[in-house]
Amino acid sequence: ATFDLVIRQARAATASDVFETDIGIRGGRIVQLGQGLAQGQAEIDARGRTVTPGGVDAHCHLDQPMEAPARMADDFRTGTRSAAAGGTTTVIPFAAQAKGESLRAAVVDYHARSEGRAVIDYAFHLIVSDPTPEVLATELPALIGEGYTSFKVYMTYDDLKLDDGQILDVLDVARTHGALAMLHAENADCIEWLTRRLEAAGRTAPRFHAHARPMLVEREATHRAIALSQLVDVPILIVHVSGKEAVEQIRWARAHGLPVFAETCPQYLFLTAEDLGIDDSYHGAKCICSPPPRGKENQQVIWDGLADGLFTVFSSDHAPFKFDAPEGKKPGGAEVPFRHIPNGIPGLETRLPLLYSEGVLGGRITLQKFVELTATNPAKAYGLHPRKGTIAIGSDADLVIWDEHEHVVRNAALHHAVDYTPYEGMVLQAWPALTLSRGEVVWDGRQVVGREGRGRFLPCGQPTLLPKR
Ligand code: URP
Ligand code: ZN
Ligand code: ZN
Ligand code: ZN
């Protein structure tokens, strides 16, 4: 037969269109679109169902080495199984350089962690934490050329943060070599100063994490990141934008014609600072992430930014730590001051269903905008488009068939290795009925059926959101 698989009468969505079509698949790729395609070796009836490109989760942390005793709950096996069950077909986690280590060593280590484990395709961002002359002149340019075309830099966290001069240095490499820099924007000194004051006053419960990282510290660093990128004349992408004041800075940059891209995440739409605790309960540790979820009024600001184009990408920032575990939110088995609680919340599997249900079916964003934010733009931003992130002839047959039904989020039904979800009990209106990766079913609506190790490493091309160099 001409096709290995034909998906019949899909209501297919791209970032620009929604159209009824059959999807003809051969050799893992989409080879024909249109009505009345010839018989395939296999057939899937999608009549009445929406079909979107598989999600590209461009910000997630899997098996990233941590300072002891912390250890991430998800490796490439559990993390990618969880992603597939939630409709994501490409993940881009981080190969993090440790201070004193070479970037190359981080990449080699990360390939060893991922090789033979993933059920869906993956690429890597780099994290540059030690921009030595060797890294700047040789290693980073070489790695960009080999398909690691994006890297994250931190303005906070002692083990990762760069000072402004170092950030200028790495931005200059991004400019020369056509890479995209992702910035974590929070003012480290302000956070340290506030944390000490809170500790001196005995305010160490999880909820005070949000007090130590108010929106002001994000706003200031966001503005500084914009200024640094303007000084070097290079585009940047600001990750995990949490609320109004940071959004205002990005709007200001855009109004001045600056190429500043931005990402936000489900936690800023669905959680608030109150989820870190309204009293000193340790359960608030489950929702400790940075930047923290904000006051309720910020959720609408984030929705507005998704709808009106302020945000370019919507990622999970999946940073998986168990709650009730010595390697998780209770270091060494104890309830500890918030400073010592590993930062991050799980969200790989729930990212797409949350946005599809509350955004698309809730009437807040169009289906095309959903596709743009969750698949097309992340693929473009990180040099994977048009292979990933769209429904087009020649693209990988990475697809999600949606089933619209009432679906209650239960951690017991998720596939990550974390012992909780912040969205427990939330009633959604849809969940993927089927996830296809390169034409193979990896999630059948009940089980992850993708084989461990079938996922391939994807070297990234030049980010196509950037001007050609
Ligand atoms: O709290 C978070 N977001 N942890 C993950 C690391 C990061 O900064 O993205
Ligand atoms: Zn970050
Ligand atoms: Zn992150
Ligand atoms: Zn369901």
UniProtKB/TrEMBL annotation:
Q: Where is the Amidohydrolase-related domain?
A: 50-442
- Write out the GO cellular component annotations: cytosol
Q: Could you tell me which Gene3D superfamilies the record lists for this protein?
A: Metal-dependent hydrolases (3.20.20.140), Urease, subunit C, domain 1 (2.30.40.10)
Class of this enzyme: hydrolase
Instruction: Give the EC number(s) listed in the UniProt record.
Output: 3.5.2.2
Q: What positions belong to coiled-coil segments?
A: none
State the superkingdom. Answer: Bacteria
What cofactors does the UniProt entry give for this protein? Zn(2+)
Q: How is it modified after translation?
A: Carbamylation allows a single lysine to coordinate two divalent metal cations.
**Key words, A-Z:** Hydrolase, Metal-binding
For this protein, the record's Pfam families field holds: Amidohydro_1
Q: Which InterPro entries match?
A: Amidohydro-rel, Hydantoinase/dihydroPyrase, Metal-dep_hydrolase_composite, Metal_Hydrolase, Metallo-dep_Hydrolases_sf
Which GO molecular function terms does the record list?
A: dihydropyrimidinase activity; metal ion binding
Q: Where in the sequence is N6-carboxylysine found?
A: K152
Family (UniProt): Belongs to the metallo-dependent hydrolases superfamily. Hydantoinase/dihydropyrimidinase family.
The name this protein carries in UniProt is Dihydropyrimidinase
Q: Which organism is it from?
A: Ramlibacter pinisoli
